[in-house]
Amino acid sequence: MLAMFFWAFVIGGIICVIGQLLFDVAKLTPGHTLSLLVSIGAILAGFGLYEPLIDFAGAGATIPITSFGNSLVEGAMNEAQKHGLVGVLTGMFEVTSSGISAAIIFGFIGALLFKPKG
């Protein structure tokens, strides 16, 4: 069990270090960095490499934003097998809709409860 925590920490940390390097060294904006990390997760999922990473690192691979790209590709591929081309579009939204909805709802609640400094 200790090894599982260790590898989750290491893999999650490496993903975060990559994001930080994109900020500091490549001088990318947060939006560009976010898009690039999601795209990397999607590409790894498309080649079948992200699921083994999740099996190995657990939360270290499912919590960072790269997992969102993985979810988009997995949802699209699963629904494409069932419904063809239309399933590609609907599958992406079906798998990720709960996370996006939660982010919107909790963001709204946070905006109601707290006042920004400025």
TrEMBL record:
The regions listed as transmembrane in this protein's record are 6-26, 33-50, 95-114
Can you tell which superkingdom this protein's organism belongs to?
A: Bacteria
Q: Does the keyword Transmembrane helix apply?
A: yes
Protein keywords: Membrane, Transmembrane, Transmembrane helix
**InterPro entries the UniProt entry points to:** Spore_V_AE, SpoVA
What protein am I looking at? Stage V sporulation protein AE
Organism for this UniProt entry = Heyndrickxia camelliae
Q: Its encoding gene is what?
A: spoVAE
